[in-house]
Design a protein that fits this description.
It is a single chain. With about 280 residues, the chain is α+β, with helices and mostly antiparallel strands. About 20% of the residues lie in helices and about 30% in strands. The chain starts with a strand and ends in a 5-residue tail after the last strand.
Length: about 280
């Protein structure tokens, strides 16, 4: 097995929204903002090469939206989903599976491209797309709080393509096994039934943090984004997850941290905290 970090474009978000009730004087120590209170956010996906399978976890926001849409997110950097794949010798046609942690636009938008002025098609023609039925139903009939994050042009073409597959939660276990060769954790604080992958790589367990732990700055329990629909649920889920990771020597892979790719954890009197940072290439 080989793992590759895939940068699917980077953007910026309001720091206050990213850290909820935590004051700026505290969160800016780990995630400094610009003069407009915007913090740098990565769209760092994960590519798993496992024998004949090439599995991509999340796909960034893509590039099919309007200029007005992108003006809200201040995209930065030169890397894209396609250029990152090519860096490691792959094309979109090589991907066998696209695993979507959830269907917010910055996680699934790159999975669909524009084929005409008002028509769309899937980016990965030979891949199965993986979600779960509870989250899919949640995203296709969105509440008003999340409706701006669930875009029909990112979601409907996947169903229409016939490439969509659903995973089911194991009700009797903290983790759920999948046919993709890794386990997943279902969490409901950020959005309904977000899926967090845990991969065994060279004997080391790695958790893809997605929006449960979007950046290293979000490791302390109260550091919960204002985007989360159930922040108190997020608080409980984070505590269980971080304690599980510390107890089982699980490394954290950060999807949204602009600077830190991977980290180990330690525990002190304040709880679970970052220990040291490293890269996948260090393993």
């Amino acid at each position: 097995m080989n793992l590759y970090p895939i940068i699917a474009g980077n953007f910026m978000l309001d720091g206050g929204a990213m850290f909820g009730v935590v004051p700026k004087s505290i969160w800016q120590k780990t995630n400094p903002s610009d003069s407009n209170n915007m913090v740098k956010i990565a769209a760092r996906c994960l590519l798993i090469e496992d024998r004949d399978n090439l599995i991509l976890i999340d796909v960034g926001m893509g590039n099919k939206q309007s200029e007005k849409f992108f003006s809200y997110y201040h995209c930065w950097g030169e890397e894209s989903l396609e250029s990152s794949l090519k860096k490691y010798g792959f094309e979109t046609s090589d991907v066998t599976d696209v695993f979507l942690t959830h269907l917010h636009f910055d996680h699934c938008g790159g999975g669909v491209i524009r084929s005409g002025e008002n028509t769309f098609e899937t980016t990965f023609k030979n891949a199965k797309y993986w979600s779960n039925e509870s989250h899919w139903d949640w995203a296709t009939s969105p509440n008003k709080r999340e409706s701006a994050s669930f875009l029909k042009e990112n979601i409907n073409p996947i169903m229409e393509s016939g490439q969509l597959n659903f995973l089911k939660k194991d009700p009797n276990s903290y983790l759920t096994s999948t046919p993709l060769g890794f386990e997943i954790l279902f969490v409901d604080g950020h959005t309904e039934k977000q899926m967090i992958p845990l991969i065994n790589y060279k004997g080391q367990k790695i958790a893809f943090g997605a929006d449960l732990i979007p950046t290293a700055g979000h490791i302390p329990l109260p550091y919960i984004p204002g985007y989360d629909i159930r922040p108190l649920v997020s608080l409980k889920e984070k505590e269980l997850f971080l304690n599980f990771c510390h107890k089982n020597d699980v490394f954290l892979f950060f999807e949204h941290d602009a600077n830190i790719e991977l980290a180990t954890l330690q525990k002190n009197e304040k709880g679970v905290r970052l220990e040291k940072t490293l890269m996948l290439g260090d393993l």
